[in-house]
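Throughout our pipeline, every protein is held as a single compact record rather than as scattered files. The record that follows is passed on verbatim for readers who wish to inspect the format.
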Amino acid sequence: MSRKLKFVTAISQMTENGASIYGGFNHFRGEAIFTSTLNTCYFEDKTLVKVKGGGLNGSNYKCSSTGEFYRVMKFDRLF
């Protein structure tokens, strides 16, 4: 069974020109659960999958259901 990691995160949805959808502040903020390899992030009702080699204009995760790109920033690890 894989270990799950919980982090305080800030998640911004990215536009096609590389800016955050809501510039100046983070779109989502809160706790997220990651797989032990950090390849998958579960935040609220979203399942975000790591984009290998970088995604659309600075994004690092992609929503598996909608295809939208997100920039996920991890802060403090929670136990």
About this structure: The chain has a mean pLDDT of 82.
